[in-house]
Amino acid sequence: MSTNLNLPHPHGGIAPGAYLEKVQAHAHGVQFYGDDAYLLDGLTRFVGGALGAGDSSIVIATKAHCDGLSKRLQGCGIDLILATQQGRFIALDAGETLAKFTVDGWPDGELFHQVVGGLVAQCRLSGRTNQSKLAAFGEMVALLWAEGKAEAAIRLEQLWNELARVHSFHLHCAYPISYFRDERHAELLEKVCAEHSHVIPEETYTTLPGEDERLRAIALLQQKARALANEVAERKKAQYELQLREAELTDFLENAIVGMHWVAADGTILWANKAELALLGYEREEYVGHHIAEFHLNQEVIADILQRLSHHEELHGAESALRCKDGSIRNVRIHSNVFSQNDKFIHTRCFTVDITEQKELGKSLILSEKLASVGRLAATIAHEINNPLEAITNLLFLAKRDIADRSKAERHLELARHELERVSHISRQTLGFCRDNSSPSEIEICKMLDELLFMYRRKLEVRKIRMEKRFEDGVKITGSESEIRQIFSNLIANAIDAMPSGGRLVVKAAASREWNNAGMPGVRVTIADTGAGIPSENRKNLFNAFYTTKKDVGTGLGLWLVNGMLSKNKGAIHVRSKVTAGASGTAFSVFLPYNTKTDRLENFTS
Amino acid sequence: MRSTLIVNVYHDTSGDPKSLSWSPIEDPDSPTARKRKRIIIVDDDALIAESLADILNGEGFEATAVFSGQDAIHWAKKTTPDVVVSDVIMPEMTGIEAARSIREFLPQCRVILFSGQALTNDLLAEARARGDSFEMLAKPIDPYALIAVLRSELEQ
After folding, report:
1. Chain-chain contact of A390 with B139 (C-beta, under 8 angstroms)
2. pTM of the prediction?
3. Which residues constitute the domain of residue A456?
4. Which residues of A touch B116 (CB under 8 A)?
5. Are the C-beta atoms of residues B141 and B114 closer than 8 Å to each other?
6. pLDDT tens by residue, A257-294
7. Is A405 on the interface with B (CB under 8 A)?
8. B93 interface with A at CB cutoff 8 Å
9. Which residues in chain A touch residue B89, judged by CB atoms under 8 angstroms apart?
10. With an 8 Å Cβ cutoff, are A389 and B117 in contact?
11. Minimal CA separation from A472 to chain B, in Å
């Protein structure tokens, strides 16, 4: 038996095999290793030392380890074949051996003693003397551990210990330290160590050159352990708080009473909160995952919304109507913007506010306002009609009284006739029966304006209004004469009304283009006054029916009619106004295309 | 000679309806006519005011037409009328405001208001609440009725 072992011996380090002499025949050590090669070097000393001394050895390891060990042992000059023949060396595959005594993944005590115990007994007897020792290495425990069966691994260690009471052998186990990287493993590690008589830490410790270094290492490890423990505690605290925060936010989103949802770039609903689902009455799976357009009444509206969002626009109060599960419709206002990362559209942040009630309220408000307006209108009409009637009554009385004086009587009757016309005109205007069935004709704008200004000349004189005309001669359009006349008449009358105590009326007419409408050519007429101006809060109601600031004189229909007639004639109107004292005034600018009855842009040579 | 009997119901501020009868037009030279009642007619519609004044002038009254509340007060100060006949709803100053101002320096002046609008009912109620004694006629006024009213004396 060769004892010339060329065994590698780390300088100053604790050689794993070295403790073989120190320890009794009964020993159960565990080694935690990082590097397979280190493990094998140690095993080589352990097994090689035993075999070299004529003792026995059992190795139950993985194939890789078995092969690696055999190579090393042979490299050290150990004749494994001879040893095996002598029965002193048994090498087994850990997995196969394990399978022989585990039942349902759990090491069965009886089977273990049968299988492993038998091997141990047999091997020991093959030793040279009765005092021969047995060096056993097993990593079945490590296999069990790798499978996550920690309890089973510990049970197996216990079974080895039971066996050790029957036979004497030196058992060496090994676990890769990486198996214990989780904080939970601390307790289990302790349990594992508890089954062993001694523990060999990982080689970063054992390869340290001297006791001094090792002590330093321990101090450093202690600090590190503390620091890590601290960090873990803090991390746990932070994580806990994060979870609280997340729970808070999730609760906020889920349980807020405003509907919220996310829409992907392609229009799919990614998430919706409870309020959103409740608003429409859908179950989660009936809403999330579907395309948002499915729920909107007007496809054009939702297409526009999605388009604007796809350009990362912010939507403030976009109105739409949604179809609920029960078929009813709810009016909503959508507030949305886009969550993006690196310019990539991730999803929208949509808020859906139900305004159905408000809209209903709005409608009934408009209705009651209209009713009130109609009441006012009726009162106004009554007044507008009563006055002429009053005058006519008086004039007829006078005509009768002065019948003998022909010219006097004629004058009374003429005035009465004029008042009658006034009543008729008001009746026509306010009851909207001004339907012009005449076919469109060519209208000379300047001539019409001149006629109107002549008609209003008395009023202009009485109110001391200066008139300025800036006409481009010869501008003509084709359209309904009475409608166009009514437009200008209303605007001029309004301008005059705005200047009860003097001012300046400017009337301009010129050829122009409507730039909002592809440069459509036509005529622009501007009627400007230097009255008090229109405050901005009234601006939006300007063209509404029955809206008037003329107290009891206005019907509120003038501009409304103007607007209506303009759209009939494919025209447009703009208003500019200032209320600053000293520089106040209003200008209405009316554009009429040359041909008021067609939509197409025609070529005109003017 | 007109012989039509026109019975008109009108309201004064006491709220009791009164009926009146119409009497024939007087002879302008009769002694009673010499004591002509001075009347101011107020209406922002010039045609109405003037035609009414014209009518009343032919009926033995001395009527002047003015076209605003301000003018009415001004003229009343100058000519101390017996009656003021006024439209209620006028721009700048209502007939009631003008009448009240005139009453301050002419407490005995009779005030007859006329208007064609429902609003005047509220104004009437307001005036009643304040204890003003105005008479009211509805528009359009029947000139015969007005003449009759002017000829009768208000029962206290």
Report:
1. yes
2. 0.40
3. 441-593
4. 382-383, 386-387, 390
5. yes
6. 999 999 999 999 999 999 999 999 999 999 999 999 99
7. no
8. no
9. 383, 552
10. no
11. 38
Give the nearest partner residue to A397 out of B47, B55, B119, using CB atoms.
B55
Max CA distance (Å), chain A? 172
Domain boundary among A354, A372, A390: A354
Whether B23 maps to a domain, the answer reads no
Distance CA A55, CA A3 (A): 12
Mean pLDDT value across chain A: 84
**With an 8 Å Cβ cutoff, are B45 and A391 in contact?**
yes
Closest residue of chain A to B120, computed from CA coordinates: A379
Edge-first strand order for the sheet with A89-93 is A89-93, A56-61, A134-138, A170-176, A27-33, A198-200
A25 pLDDT tier (thresholds 50, 70, 90): low
Residue A577 placed within a domain = yes
The verdict on A307 and A169 lying in the same domain is no
Which residue in A379, A391, A401 is closest to B47 by CB distance?
A: A391
Q: pLDDT digit string (tens) for A201-231? A: 888 787 778 888 888 988 998 999 999 889 9
Domain boundary (A329, A354, A379) is at A354
Lowest average pLDDT, out of A247-251, A490-494, A558-562, A599-603, goes to A599-603
DSSP, residue by residue, A152-208:
HHHHHHHHHHHHHHHS--EEEEEEEGGGG-STTHHHHHHHHHHTSSEEE--HHHHTS
Q: Are the beta carbons of A273 and A254 closer than 8 angstroms?
A: yes
Partnered with residue A514 across adjacent β-strands are A520
Which one-letter DSSP state was computed for residue A296? B
Residue with tokens 């970063």: A204
> Looking at the partner chain, which of A379, A395, A398 has a beta carbon nearest the beta carbon of B117?
A379
Q: How confident is the model at residue A332 (pLDDT cuts 50, 70, 90)?
A: very high
> Is it the case that residue A377 has pLDDT exceeding 70?
no
In this structure, which amino acid lies at residue A305? I
From first CA to last CA, the distance across chain A in angstroms is 126
As a whole number of Å, the end-to-end CA separation of chain B is 31
Q: What is the pLDDT of residues A467-515, one digit of tens each?
A: 999 999 888 898 888 778 888 888 998 899 899 888 999 999 999 887 6
- Alpha carbon distance A410, A562 (integer Å): 37
Measured over all CA atoms, what is the biggest interatomic distance in chain B, rounded to whole angstroms?
43
Distance, in angstroms, between A545 CA and closest chain B CA?
A: 21
What's the gap between Cα A291 and its chain centre?
15
* Cα–Cα distance, A532 to A536 (Å, whole number): 12
Closest-CA distance, A397 to chain B, in angstroms, reads 8
In terms of residue numbers, what domain contains B46?
36-143
User: Does the pLDDT at position B51 exceed 90?
Assistant: yes
Looking at every residue in chain B, the average pLDDT score rounds to 76
CA atoms within 13 A on the CB side of A49: 21
Residue B42 lies in a domain: yes
Closest CA to B144 of B32, B19, B7: B7
Q: In chain A, which residues have their Cβ closer than 8 Å to the Cβ of B91?
A: 551, 553
Query: In this structure, is residue A216 part of a structural domain?
Result: no
